[in-house]
Here is the input.
Amino acid sequence: MNKKMEQMEKGGATGGINTSTVAEKTKANPGGASKAQKLIPYGGYFTNTIPGHDPEITETEPGTPLGEYMRGFWHPICMSLELTDTPRFLKIMGEELVAFRDKSGRVGVLHAHCVHRGASLEYGSIQERGIRCCYHGMVFDVDGTCLEVPFPPGEEKEAERFKCSIQQGAYKALERNGLIFAYMGPPDQEPPFPEWEGNFTVADTDELVPFSNFQHCNWLQVQDNAADNFHTAALHSAKQVVGGHYQGTTFDEVGAPSMQVAPDMQFIPVHQGRGLACAGARRSNDDHMFIRVQHQVLPNLSLHAYTSEDGASKKLFSRFHIIRWTVPVDNQNSKMIGWRVMGPSIDTRGIGDKSMVGYETIDFLEGQVAMRRPERFGKYKPEDIVPIPTHHRERHNYKECQYAPGDYEAIISQRPIAIHALENPTKFDAGLYMFRKMLRDAVRGTNPAASPQAFAQWMRENGGSPNSYCSGNVFHLPKANDVDEEVGQRRHLSKKVVEIITSNENLKGTERAQIIQQQMDDLEKETKQLLTQKAFQKKTSA
Ligand code: FES
Ligand SMILES: [Fe+2]
Here is the structure.
């Protein structure tokens, strides 16, 4: 890690936005050029050397520090619909795996290569119990136990002896709402499955609709994007679309133009350093202020507040519409895999479309995956396991994607593994730098609350169902008289919102929601009063 990144991570970790660290960034010298050289017009020559990526927080193969850390958690590895009558080949954190559902309904996640002589079990046949390797016919149960060695008659004893001498690599799996999760760490350290908010829902009408969206890049830049709330103002803005080539990529198109207003961000570590709350304040109209709080949890979970919020009327403590894990496939590929939470409780404007949520597709903003919807739904059915384009520049709709790019184009084009040493972060990048710092510390063992063991213990203490802080909050608060007052008002509000949502930890579910809504209502009144008292006016020295 270079000095620039250290400084930015330190600045972020204090909980504030430290602009001086941003100013310091140009001290970095990744390509051997001086600070002055790097600022020379037409001086690309001085910055044409590409330094290496940051392996400590990007690489996840077995034996890497981050890989070992991540293996301490449950991760979704595929969708249930990917388990058909043939085994499913998967790559997760660089490991080649085969997942299948045997004929008795149990899910197996095994090392792909047969422990006998390495044939891939993706060519095996699914049995009543376990899977049979195609090459010499050995059968393995879902826990890796060898059940059968088909030697000829007279060799039963030798078959039995051999059977007991081998074990196919296997990982424990569980299935939830259309997703297959696996735990790939040491069996004796298996953590409880994290049941956020009890069962990942907050209302009886909430429905968890599974999806899996492949990303042609390292997992961390996909995770970084969750804390990068500032990008919505540019990337998802109607005014950025070239030549009127709208493709469902903008918030304007779903009637939520307030999401295109640049938010003022506050980034606050939560749950003793296990997660981060990113609170963005933006004005949705002259009478309403929208505070959107995103919640990220180490190492790779993020909960996202309603993105189709029009901010037109008061709404307090509306919850998550996406729960997702960013799962490394290998160092240069990953997938966003999780649930769209659908139903009237969250999707108050009825924007969601379940028929577009699934394998390599999601209904929220076009441009989340390599394949655009006209191609996806023109050729394939929603339940099809479609082929994933191999490279973003080889897509036949490449030009359309240039006219109206989405998150996929922005994120994966940061290079297969983004080069942190070349970044010039602004104060609005502080959130993702904080998250990187929390992650790095967790990997190094210097963020003790975030170790897999501490996470597991914390999960057991709160009954396996921690509260999440993700929320969309629209306050009825008129625009202040001047910019300074407006800034004061929105920052006050953001901080107080995070205080409120994090200070009712002993409460759960509806009881917690009611108290939080009451406290936010009081906050609205208090803020109105402070505005009347001119408390947010800039104090000028005499
Ligand atoms: S390689 Fe699988 S049984 Fe021989
Ligand atoms: Fe985005």
